[in-house]
Write a structure and sequence with these properties.
single chain, 405 residues, mainly alpha, 3-stranded mixed β-sheet, two-stranded antiparallel sheet, 7 strands, elongated
């Protein structure tokens, strides 16, 4: 059937049960003992195996639904089981969903049924897993045996006793209703008394409110008068401060005028001083150039005279016997030529680079006497030129070229 529930069981006028709504029914044969349709019927009447995809189940699904139906008939209300799944910690840390056993999910309804109810063992067996669930033949045999033992009648008498208890509870409920009505009457009286108190309290509150308003008005007026007086005093002080600031501003303006005049005078004085200083520097530059020209001329004259003296001494070397050096008479001494030394003619003409050439006309290897004479002449000339070079004006270059044959 796959959809057995109280809604799909009809009663005839003679009390016979008729199972209806076979739209989800399947005909099971020996070769076809399972189906994999998920959630075929109403969830409170379905076992756990139908909620998992690709799970095999057979006709014992109807047996589970029949057990739930028997419990509903005994309790006289629809089944309300707890959630079917719970989360469990997996081995690798993942949380997995696990099915809760049906006897645990319906523990509250089983406790309501009672531990001594004759149908409880059968109901608990029908709520087990599919492999442990009895077949429909076993269920029929157990119900026939239960009817024959008389336990069925005792359960029915228990139901009659429950009706008596229900009647007693109804009477108690009526008493409770009467007590509730009495409490409502008292509540009405209390509300009337409360309204009366609210009126009295409202009158008292109006009087106190009026008095509070008068007091607040008086305090407000006093605060305004005090604030006005303080404002007038502060305004007078502010006017005095403004007058003082105006006088100080005028004084500052006068001081700024004096500073401006002093600044102009200082500027004129500095301009005149700078002009005078420029004239003095020009005169000093002219005097320095004249002194430099004079010193240069004197140095050149001294160099020429010293050079002539050195040539004379070089041309008269220490006599050596011709027997010792036959070539002594034939080697002329080196000649120093100062004709290329430039001398400025005026202060405006710049000093050029002076040059001195020392030449000799050796046509063969000189003797020892000739070498001695020539070396002395060269040293004398170099010493003279060194003196002149150290005394020349700063920045005047000098080149000395030695060109022996």
């Amino acid at each position: 059937h796959r959809n057995l529930s109280a809604n799909n069981v009809m009663l005839t006028s003679t009390g016979t049960c008729k199972i209806c709504d076979v739209g989800l029914a399947k005909v099971f044969t020996q070769a076809r003992r399972m189906t994999t349709t998920v959630k075929p019927g109403a969830e409170p009447y379905m076992p756990g195996e139908v909620l998992i995809a690709h799970t095999e189940y057979d006709e014992r699904l109807d047996n589970f639904s029949f057990g739930v139906l028997i419990m509903e008939m005994c309790l006289a209300h629809e089944p309300h089981p707890s959630p079917r799944f719970t989360q469990e910690e997996h081995v690798n840390g993942r949380r997995m969903m696990a099915l809760i056993p049906e006897t645990n999910r319906r523990r509250e309804e089983l406790n309501e049924l009672g531990a001594t109810h004759p149908l409880r063992p059968l109901i608990e067996r029908l709520l087990q897993a599919q492999a442990d669930r009895p077949t429909i033949g076993e269920i029929h045999s157990e119900l026939i045996a239960l009817q024959a033992s008389g336990a069925y009648e005792s359960s029915v008498s228990t139901l009659h006793g429950a009706e008596a208890v229900s009647t007693r509870l109804g009477k108690e409920l009526q008493s409770v209703k009467e007590a509730v009505d009495e409490m409502r009457q008292r509540q009405t009286q209390s509300e009337e008394h409360l309204r009366f108190l609210e009126q009295r309290l409202g009158q008292t509150m109006d009087q106190k409110l009026q008095q509070s308003r008068q007091n607040l008005t008086t305090l407000f007026n006093q605060s305004i008068e005090q604030s006005t007086t303080r404002s007038v005093e502060s305004f007078g002080q502010l006017q005095h401060t403004v007058s003082s600031l105006t006088a100080a501003q005028q004084q500052v303006q006068q001081n700024l005028g004096g500073i401006t005049t002093s600044q102009q005078q200082l500027h004129q004085h500095m301009t005149a001083s700078i002009h005078t200083l420029q004239q003095e520097m020009a005169q000093l530059r002219q005097d320095s150039e004249q002194k430099i020209d004079s010193m240069t001329a004197q140095l050149l004259s001294a160099i020429r005279s010293q050079s002539s003296t050195a040539q004379s001494s070089a041309m008269s070397p220490t006599p050596i016997s011709q027997e010792q050096d036959p070539q002594a008479q034939s080697v002329p001494p080196p000649q120093v030529d100062f004709s290329q030394v430039n001398q400025p003619t005026s202060a405006q003409q710049p000093l050029t680079k002076p040059s001195v050439s020392i030449t000799s006309s050796l046509t063969q290897p000189p003797s020892a006497a000739a070498r001695h004479s020539w070396t002395a002449s060269r040293r004398s000339t170099a010493a003279t030129l060194s003196v002149w070079a150290d005394s020349r004006p700063s920045g005047l270059p000098l080149s000395l070229t030695h060109s022996p044959a």
